[in-house]
């Protein structure tokens, strides 16, 4: 199970940290990702972190502003979001890749809504 | 970046119909394609990976095919639970989703 938290209303330029708590599987054996969905639109992958945390990728839309991290001892994934823009308004999902490979996403959280507005 | 283009954007169909959704990649992604189903207010659910492998628990009326740049998702006999939005995704180079296909009741 994956459970996101950290939803909030934030002003443009502000910061927010999302968390994703994992349970029911060996978190340290799985790569993870953040995927977002703006209201009424499709899915956008924004960040990936390998099982060890040593390999990280970002979409161009968030590169330099967002930072993904994980704490395998706490079974948790994080997304630090800085310099937020109106267009970052979306539901943010954490998702699991099967085992250590960078692949599709076989389990998703319920999502947490981030609203960026003045 | 690899673009994934789905068609149609909306599909109107009746119970029992056979429906096919197409996804085209802007460059070859081999068979590194997954398909997801999403219902309103819910997270996406994995249906198919590696273009044609059915995820555990997904009904056999759902199938996927294709390789290279052309992929299809087929539902052989549409059931009430299948009215939803479907997304393709490539994972050959980073990750990209198609824009989605909404399957609605005719």
Please give the largest β-sheet of chain B. Answer: 7 strands, mixed
Biggest interface and residues each: A-B, 20 and 22 residues
Distance between the termini of chain A: 34 Å
Order of helices and strands of chain A: EEEEEEEEEEE
Q: What is the rounded Rg of chain A?
A: 13 Å
Query: Number of helical runs of chain A?
Result: 0
Which blocks of ≥5 consecutive residues of chain A have pLDDT under 50?
none
Discrete helix count of chain B: 0
Mean pLDDT of chain A: 96
Termini Cα gap of chain B? 36 Å
Q: What is the helix fraction of residues of chain B, given as a range?
A: under 10%
The helix content of chain A, as a percent range, equals under 10%
| Residue runs with pLDDT of under 50 for 5 or more positions of chain B | none
Shape of chain B: globular
Topology of this protein?
The complex is a heterodimer of chains A (118) and B (106).
Chain A: E1 2-5, E2 8-10, E3 16-22, E4 32-37, E5 43-49, E6 56-58, E7 66-71, E8 76-81, E9 90-96, E10 107-108, E11 112-116
Parallel strand pairs in A: 2-11
Antiparallel strand pairs in A: 1-3, 3-8, 4-5, 4-9, 5-6, 7-8, 9-10, 9-11
Chain B: E1 4-7, E2 10-13, E3 19-25, E4 33-38, E5 45-49, E6 53-54, E7 62-67, E8 70-75, E9 85-90, E10 96-97, E11 101-105
Parallel strand pairs in B: 2-11
Antiparallel strand pairs in B: 1-3, 3-8, 4-5, 4-9, 5-6, 7-8, 9-10, 9-11
Question: How does this model look, in words?
Answer:
The complex is a heterodimer of chains A (118) and B (106). Chain A is mostly beta strands. Chain A is built from no helices and eleven strands. Chain A has strands at residues 2-5, 8-10, 16-22, 32-37, 43-49, 56-58, 66-71, 76-81, 90-96, 107-108, 112-116. Chain A is globular. The model of chain A has no long low-confidence stretch (mean pLDDT 96). In chain B, the strands form two sheets. In chain B, strands 2, 4, 5, 6, 9, 10 and 11 form a seven-stranded mixed sheet that branches. Chain B has a four-stranded antiparallel sheet with strand order 1-3-8-7, with no helix packed on it. Chain B has 106 residues and is an all-beta fold. The N and C termini of chain B lie far apart (36 Å). In chain B, 36% of the residues are buried. In chain B, strand 5 (45-49) and strand 6 (53-54) form a beta hairpin. Chains A and B meet through strand 5 and strand 10 of A and strand 4, strand 5 and strand 10 of B.
